């Protein structure tokens, strides 16, 4: 009996680790537009962004001096980044039936034009954009942020 419980506990732990790994690898959106030097960096590998490029959590979205990029997330959130920008979507949960809703992003430099999708409409407190000097909590449907180097 004790051996069966141990096997069940190990099986549950393995399942939890596997599903967490799969969730981290899920596509959360796609590049819709890209101009100039617009890149998606995944696991240290940088590729030129083009319409249809998948975006996952922890991908670095980076543009050069003449670059820009538009991304649509699966909840219909629109992200437009301008020249010399670096944005990472750190957290993303979109399971409205379970009330699992969250967007957490980090804007380290450059500009971001944000238009809310379903997550911010259903649960505005679930959206946060971090910058080097503070956090932006989304309570409306649209904002523009710019991070200027000191």
What does this structure look like?
This protein has helices spanning 2-24, 118-122, and strands at residues 27-35, 38-42, 45-48, 54-56, 60-63, 68-73, 78-81, 86-95, 100-115, 127-131, 134-137, 142-147. By secondary structure, the protein is of the alpha+beta class. The chain has one domain. Strands 1, 2, 3, 4, 5, 6, 7, 8, 9, 10, 11 and 12 form a twelve-stranded mixed beta sheet that branches. A hairpin with a 4-residue loop joins strand 8 and strand 9. The longest helix is centred in the first third of the chain and has 23 residues, at 2-24.
Write the layout of secondary structure elements.
Elements: H1 2-24, E1 27-35, E2 38-42, E3 45-48, E4 54-56, E5 60-63, E6 68-73, E7 78-81, E8 86-95, E9 100-115, H2 118-122, E10 127-131, E11 134-137, E12 142-147
Parallel strand pairs: 9-10
Antiparallel strand pairs: 1-4, 1-6, 2-3, 2-5, 5-8, 6-7, 7-9, 8-9, 9-12, 10-11
Profile the largest sheet. 12 strands, mixed
Please identify the structural class as seen in this structure.
Answer: alpha+beta
Helical proportion, percent range: 10-25%
Shape: globular
- Computed Rg: 18 Å
Question: How large is the count of helical segments?
Answer: 2
Order of helices and strands: HEEEEEEEEEHEEE
- The number of distinct β-strands equals 12
Total domain count: 1
Beta-strand content: over 45%
Uncertain segments are 5-23
Oligomer: single chain
N- to C-terminal distance:
64 Å
Mean pLDDT: 86
């Amino acid at each position: 009996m004790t051996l069966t419980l141990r096997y069940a506990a190990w099986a549950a732990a393995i399942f939890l680790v596997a599903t967490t790994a799969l969730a981290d690898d899920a596509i959360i959106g796609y590049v819709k537009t890209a101009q100039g030097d617009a890149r998606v960096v995944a696991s240290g590998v940088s590729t030129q962004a083009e319409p249809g490029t998948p975006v996952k959590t922890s991908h670095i979205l980076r543009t050069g001096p003449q670059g820009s990029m538009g991304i649509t997330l699966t909840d219909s959130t629109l992200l437009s980044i301008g020249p010399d920008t670096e944005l990472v979507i750190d957290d993303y949960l979109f399971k409205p039936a379970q009330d699992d809703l969250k967007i957490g992003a980090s804007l380290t430099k450059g500009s971001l034009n944000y238009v809310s999708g379903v997550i911010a409409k259903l649960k505005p407190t679930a959206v946060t954009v971090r910058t080097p000097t503070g956090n932006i909590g989304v309570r409306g449907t649209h904002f523009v942020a710019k991070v200027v180097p000191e």
